[in-house]
Amino acid sequence: MAYTNSYKPPDAPALLPGYYGPEPYDINWIFPLHEATLESERVKLTPFIPSEHAKEYAEQATAHPELHRWFPFDLPNLDVILTTVELRVRRDPTWILFAIIDKARGGALAGVIGLVYASPTNLSVEIAWVLVFPKFQRTYVTTNAVGIILQYCLELPTASPRPGLGLRRAQWMTHSLNKPSHDAAKRMGLKDEGILRWMFVLPEGKEGHGIPIREGDPQQSHPGRHSLVLSFCADDWENGGREHVQKLIDRK
């Protein structure tokens, strides 16, 4: 049997210097945005709008390059952040990035947190891109931001006055060596599920899992990453998870 293969790899995405997205900004998100649920007494999550949030994010990333130490991609400057938010996030309706706003400190931008690979079919999503700026670390910000995201994902759409998406699964994946991320997820009530080995081929210079790459590998100079997998599911939420998360959010 004769056959052919006409596949051609796509061109690498071009950098979009100075591109802040369409006006008005279209978040292009597959689910409803329940604003009342995306807020606690001290922290608010609002869609990341590059014209409002990207410059501060870039300044923090430049001053603190360790913020992206465990990420499977690099965000070294403003133009790369703008390009990544536009091409990877906004144009994919299964992704959304939120700005973390510290209401208790005058509405300061405290970091970012995202939802990726959202599936209305399987009622699932992954919590990712969790990044809190150094000034706001080891405060209530991380707990509130993750708690708000969990409420938004797992609460039922019929809940009042703070409806959620009614998802069955909220997943968290992190570099196998990223103990602070693992600890944060466990503290919030997510459960360990195991390790996905060799999940990412990382950019050159990134810290891999330390296992040597075999000779002849097509990307010999790029380290590999194992990912720890945790989840918070609907049955966890209904069996004490809701109360656990709210208690952490309310803790002074």
From TrEMBL:
It comes from the Eukaryota. Residues 42-191 form the N-acetyltransferase domain. Pfam families: Acetyltransf_3. One of its GO terms (molecular function) is protein-N-terminal-alanine acetyltransferase activity. InterPro entries: Acyl_CoA_acyltransferase (IPR016181), GNAT_dom (IPR000182), Ribosomal_N-acetyltransferase (IPR051908). This is Acyl-CoA N-acyltransferase.
